Amino acid sequence: MTERLKVHVDPDKCQGHARCKALAPELFELDEYGNAREAGDGTVPPGLEDKAWLAKSNCPEIAIDVIEE
Ligand code: F3S
Questions:
Q1: Which Pfam family is an annotated match for this chain, by its short name (predicted)?
Q2: Which of 3, 15, 18, 27 has its C-alpha lying 20 to 30 A from 36's C-alpha?
Q3: Exposed, middle or buried by CB within 10 Å (0-12, 13-18, 19+), for 30?
Q4: What are the DSSP calls for 38-66, one per residue?
Q5: Cβ < 6 A, ligand 1 pocket
Q6: pTM, whole model, 2 decimals?
Q7: What are the pLDDT digits (tens) for 3-58?
Q8: What is the pLDDT of residue 24?
Q9: Helix (H) or strand (E) holding 37
């Protein structure tokens, strides 16, 4: 069975550094203030798992969670 990942942005922690969007544009969207949220329901498409972990480790505010389902 294939592991599925989801990303989630904590809106209380996100300060709009936008590194997530730069590193994993498929997984994040920015609002009009530059704050991020997960694209869609946050499900990470197959092959983008590394980008999910990369975004998490590069967020200066530790606002990104990667959830293993
Ligand atoms: Fe916000 Fe972190 Fe991305 S602060 S815009 S979730 S890099």
A1: Fer4_15
A2: 3
A3: middle
A4: ESTT-BPPTT-HHHHHHHHHH-TT--EEE
A5: 9, 14-20, 35-36, 59, 61, 63-64
A6: 0.94
A7: 799 999 999 999 999 999 999 999 999 999 999 999 999 999 999 999 999 999 99
A8: 98
A9: strand 36-38
Q: Which domains are assigned to the chain?
A: 5-68 (3.30.70.20)
Q: How confident is the model at residue 67 (pLDDT cuts 50, 70, 90)?
A: very high
Distance separating alpha carbons of residues 6 and 34, to the nearest angstrom: 21
* Alpha-carbon gap, residue 29 to 24, rounded angstroms: 10
Around Cβ 39, how many Cβ atoms within 10 Å? 17
Atom of ligand 1 nearest to the CA of 21: 3
